[in-house]
């Protein structure tokens, strides 16, 4: 690891640094400019499990090497009427792990596997995962994986485009949720690359 200065730098990152890595309103891509902060805060393993798929436990995530995380979520202003094609949320999350191998393991064994295993299953609030497709990711410093998730419920279809990527022992996540059947790979990639840039800046000592 020591031969890679960036990876080494992530060993100096603590949970208190994660807040400075997630994107703020001014950092958002053009398509999400003007969105307002809806939620932000630390994400411990217990909260992750409570909001995860059925069977998720804090112990499972702890055993996967996850130490903690921080998230920021943005939504349109109140004057934007919900309609097909509207992106109802854009969010970034940074998770801290014990080592880079665990980040890689999480991406394939938890992120991708849990979504693919739950196709056809109910995910609460009357929602059901209809389809999960992997999307192409490019331009990242290291390993990255993306999913386009379609879920259905009483109000119709919702799409989620999610990209996970690794920076040393950090996992960056960019998420765009849309009303209707809309693949947002390009926007999620823009969001993820902006997040990656900020994570690297903070890891190398800049805030």
Strand order of the largest sheet: 1-2-3-7-6-5-4
First CA to last CA: what distance? Answer: 24 Å
Total strands: 7
Secondary-structure content class? alpha+beta
Give the CA-based shape.
Answer: globular
Seen as an oligomer or otherwise, the chain set is single chain
Strand count, sense and closure of the main sheet?
7 strands, antiparallel
**What is the share of helical residues?**
25-40%
Q: H/E series, N to C? A: HEHHEEHEEEEH
Explain this structure.
The radius of gyration is 16 Å and the shape is globular. Strands 1-2-3-7-6-5-4 form a 7-stranded antiparallel β-sheet, with helices on both faces. The protein is built from 5 helices and 7 strands. The chain has helices at 5-9, 45-50, 58-63, 100-117, 185-203, and strands at 36-42, 66-75, 87-97, 128-135, 144-153, 156-167, 170-179. With 207 residues, it is of the alpha+beta class.
Quick structural overview:
This protein has 207 residues and is an alpha+beta fold. Helix content is 26%, strand content 33%. The chain has a 7-stranded antiparallel sheet with strand order 1-2-3-7-6-5-4, with helices on both faces.
Salient structural properties:
207 residues; alpha+beta; 7 strands
List the helices and strands and how they pair.
Layout: H1 5-9, E1 36-42, H2 45-50, H3 58-63, E2 66-75, E3 87-97, H4 100-117, E4 128-135, E5 144-153, E6 156-167, E7 170-179, H5 185-203
Antiparallel strand pairs: 1-2, 2-3, 3-7, 4-5, 5-6, 6-7
């Amino acid at each position: 690891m020591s031969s890679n200065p960036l990876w080494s730098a992530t060993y100096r990152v603590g949970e208190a640094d994660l807040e400075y890595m997630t994107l703020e309103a001014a950092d958002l891509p053009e398509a999400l400019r003007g969105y307002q902060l809806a939620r932000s805060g630390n994400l411990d393993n217990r909260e992750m499990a409570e909001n995860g798929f059925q069977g998720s436990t804090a112990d499972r995530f702890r055993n996967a090497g996850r130490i903690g995380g921080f998230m920021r979520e943005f939504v349109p202003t109140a004057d934007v009427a919900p309609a097909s094609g509207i992106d109802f949320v854009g969010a970034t999350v940074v998770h801290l792990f014990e080592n880079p191998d665990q980040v890689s393991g999480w991406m394939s064994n938890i992120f991708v596997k849990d979504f693919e295993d739950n196709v056809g299953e109910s995910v609460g609030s009357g929602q059901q995962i209809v389809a999960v497709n992997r999307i192409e990711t490019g331009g990242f410093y290291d390993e990255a994986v993306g999913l386009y998730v379609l879920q259905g419920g009483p109000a119709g279809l919702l799409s989620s485009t999610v990209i996970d990527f690794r920076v040393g022992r950090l996992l960056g996540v960019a998420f765009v949720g849309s009303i209707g059947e809309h693949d947002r790979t390009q926007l999620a990639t823009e969001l993820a690359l902006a997040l990656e840039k900020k994570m690297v800046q903070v890891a190398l000592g800049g805030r």
